[in-house]
Write a structure and sequence with these properties.
4 copies of one chain form a homotetramer.
Chain A: H1 2-11, E1 17-18, H2 23-27, E2 35-36, E3 48-51, H3 56-66, E4 76-79, H4 85-97, E5 101-104, E6 107-108, H5 111-115, E7 120-124, H6 127-138, E8 143-148, H7 152-180, H8 185-194, H9 200-211, H10 220-237, H11 242-256, H12 266-274
Parallel strand pairs in A: 1-2, 3-4, 4-5, 7-8
Antiparallel strand pairs in A: 6-7
Helix pairs in contact in A: 3-4, 7-10, 7-11, 7-12, 8-9, 10-11
Chain lengths: 305, 305, 305, 305
């Protein structure tokens, strides 16, 4: 997902250099004017370095390599990954020891959302760093929110994913109710998506709900992990979460039943089974709301929720 | 809420005649070119009659007066209210006895949503009637969904309101979590509203969440009623609703504690209390996403959720 | 279930006359010294009349026949059935018009519990009537509780059944957890039954849980009805019921999946399926705690929970 | 809680030696014929050593001291504490290295339950060790259940505490419902306790529920810890726990509201508040079912749930 972000910045006229573990992925950005680095450390002399990695361990590892040389470090480091607050704090400390200011800036959206120009970011870290980088961050998508010091944005992203889990399960419940009563799923979701309750998420999840295409974009295992991060945060901070807690259990059931490699839209199928209803794919075109030209009936396996 | 709809049609160049129990309300539409009827029955000779009333009893009563004369009845009757499937079926039968085709067409949105041109409708009834009236319905807002025969759209609207209740309570849970951890509510909601999880609803509910303005637009009593209609439908149709059921109970608590006359955004305040957190109004400007010019800091008491 | 109660009173030396729709059932009590009436009205001249019927409609019908003659009515009427508060109040009014004092006295336990001498009763009605009849009520089982005026005991019985539903579902959850981790069900339930959490109910339900004998004693449909009576009472009285509400949905799922004619112990099987676990009968002897001599490995289909 | 257990064994005629961190506590057992050891290691030469400690860390520490000398170790070690499976496995390994067979044998009940002779134990470890020690274990209370190899009994105890938490919260829900409808709490609980749903637990918890005596026997913090151990086990083993998950959140609310030092019966008070009901102590005698002579109106702060 770093690729479309780098491309956006390059196309906007900035000088961009990219590094990826798989060098070919970085090289694929050349047509957009992106240069390729051989090593994370090669980026250390730049003004601003963005990281977008798969998990906390990767962030630790990449930033160690980036900041390995005390004599050379970027002025700013911005991480857009979804990682733990602990890993984020560790990177902040290491960055500080190099004189590098750090922003934690996880995103809402997947690669297709980036390409549609609709990504949003939630940022935490020093206010003055945010103020200085805001124009640059704004170029990544359509909206940037600053929520405070330190690693608060990590919790904001977890909260976002709790809402995503709750909405998915409750959407499964009402969709099965509507369909078992006689409505085509596509028609019902067309209404919801265009109602005041519709969101970018409900729209881009609709093709999977309608066609029962469970090619994974985000799995029940990953969603359960986010639920558990959220429940742990709620315990530490001291907040009861009655609805979130209830939405976690169907996800746990999906995992327990071995539906671990499918998209978390499998919640719809399990909800139908719980209602004694044999759900079937509907073979109709569904607008995913991201408006890309030439979209075929199947989304490619993606990078995110 | 019928007023802004009538106005839209009139401003689009159609010939519109309005009747309201309080005649002054109908007369207020004169500047938009709307004529005023003295009696529901005066509308009976028109091609299409729309009804927008407060509840099932009013729909029964108004359509009895509209269809009182067997010699004169409109060709089409379209009800945009939120009423029970039973009342809707009763009106359909009466309309049929007069040769009037009936569409059940409840809406998603409130008066401000109508004026912003963002209303959506969910429609059920005879397919050919829908096809004939679709261009007219499309003039009422930005989207029209057809979900099937009979009163199915009534259930679709209930499902919509179940999602609304679930989202409100889970938004309360994550907002209290985010705030107790240190985020300003306005900043956190700014992120959610602009994320893939943001909806027209989360945006226009944000001013109440941020400023704790509990001027009612929709009360816990009404929301509980919709939850109960939904749970009753789920029992009849045979669908377990684990998350919906869990979201109902905080609403029940609000009612039990006598918070019956306040906006259902009171769920945020009760959630904060459950977390032992003293929530306070934040006196900052909040975008409600409906983009009306000259919007002041307080929304007027509205008509809907 | 009236039969073992009548037998207890007769064996205690009281003069007992019985009426049953199926006369053979009443006649079967003759060895215990019970006389048989041909008509409900034949009981009208006695001091105390007990009713034990299947539902509200039967109670209304039987008491109409019992109290049909204004010239002749029992001094006391005691209903031990599980019926609605509305039906109970109606019978109270009719009884009062005949000068008959009425006690609502639903019971906890089934026929086997009665025979083991372990029945308990919860009673409401005029305090002085209760005081006068208490010695007689005490002969029916091992405990009598008086909870107040009017029909309060009906709600007490519903509350009892809500607890029964919650305990059954949570027992299903922890039993599947224990078994999937490696414990034999019989061993785990032996511990629970003998722990401080064990109840007469957990003990007499254990044979069904261990052997997966789903011969109905009480069905998911009836349990859901009690849940709904409880949720309706909670709405009227104003009490949120978070755990009760969550326990209702698996029962709803059982009904939705067509498991309507089996014992409500089917909740265990559905919980195992939700956990992706293939549960199998364990063919071992299980103590049901009711200690009847000569109990074979299978309980007969019973009368109650 | 080790004290009444040691006393039982000594009074049964066995030779018992006790050690306690606070020597005076061990010495208080002298009248029952219990000898006192100065050091855990002084017990190493005995046949069977029982441990009953507060938590995992204490078990590790005490068994390290007991098994410190490779030349001297008991034949059997039986731990009756509630500790983690991890700590239990660690002790098992250390014991094995000394040739000591280990049984994990947590208990259900508190000190008063022990004195009433009503304790039950759930045991795991080598089957032959269990068979050899069963007569001794049976002397500790009224029932011993063997659930399998290794540390399975630890999970059994956690499952027991999950049920305890669910029953407490659902008892709070139905008790508030019954009381708000007009029943005295003492009367309602008298019915439940004597019904088929009554357990030793519901009975000995009733004085706290009736008199609102929140002197801690077990706190919301400890109960939440057990819920979290249970939810973690359920995740690892793969079982959804819808009702258990919903019962955890009111406990979390109690902790969040700072009700951390009170008895977990505070759930009743919080449930009443959620229902907008001002609950008051009822100053009536309540049978706790443990039948000790001379029981005064207040239970002493105890040791367990």
């Amino acid at each position: 997902m770093g690729a479309p972000l780098a491309e956006r910045l390059a196309r906007a006229g900035l000088s961009v250099t990219a590094w990826n573990r798989t060098q070919a992925k970085a090289e694929a950005l050349a047509p957009a004017g992106v240069k390729v680095a051989a090593e994370p450390h090669d980026l250390a002399g730049l003004d601003v370095v963005f990281t977008m990695v798969a998990d906390s361990a990767d962030l630790i590892s990449v930033t160690e390599r980036l900041l390995g040389d005390p004599a050379q470090a970027p002025k700013f480091l911005v991480d857009c990954s979804t990682v733990s607050a602990e890993a984020s704090a560790e990177v902040r400390t290491r960055a500080a020891s190099r004189g590098t200011a750090f922003l934690a800036a996880p995103v809402s959206g997947n690669g297709r959302v980036v390409r549609a120009g609709l990504l949003s970011l939630v940022v935490s870290g020093p206010r003055e760093t945010f103020d200085e980088l805001e124009p640059l961050l704004a170029m990544l998508g359509r909206h940037v929110s600053y929520v405070g010091e330190g690693e608060l944005s990590r919790l904001a992203k977890i909260c976002h994913n709790l809402l995503l889990g709750v909405v998915t399960q409750s959407l499964a419940e009402i969709t099965v109710l509507a369909e078992k009563a006689g409505m085509p799923r596509a028609a019902f979701l067309d209404f919801i998506n265009n109602s005041v309750m519709g969101s970018m998420f409900t729209r881009y999840k609709s093709p999977a709900f309608v066609r029962l295409d469970l090619t994974p974009t985000f799995t029940p295992v990953l969603l359960r992990k986010d639920f558990d991060l959220g429940m742990t945060a709620a315990r530490e901070i001291g907040v009861p979460m009655p609805v979130v807690a209830s939405a976690r259990e169907p996800v746990q059931a999906a995992v327990a039943q071995g539906r671990t490699e499918e998209d978390f839209a499998v919640l719809l199928e399990l909800q139908a089974a719980a209602a004694g209803y044999q759900i079937m794919p509907e073979d109709v075109p569904v607008d995913d709301g991201l408006g890309e030209p030439g979209e075929g009936p199947r989304r490619p396996a993606g990078d995110g929720t």
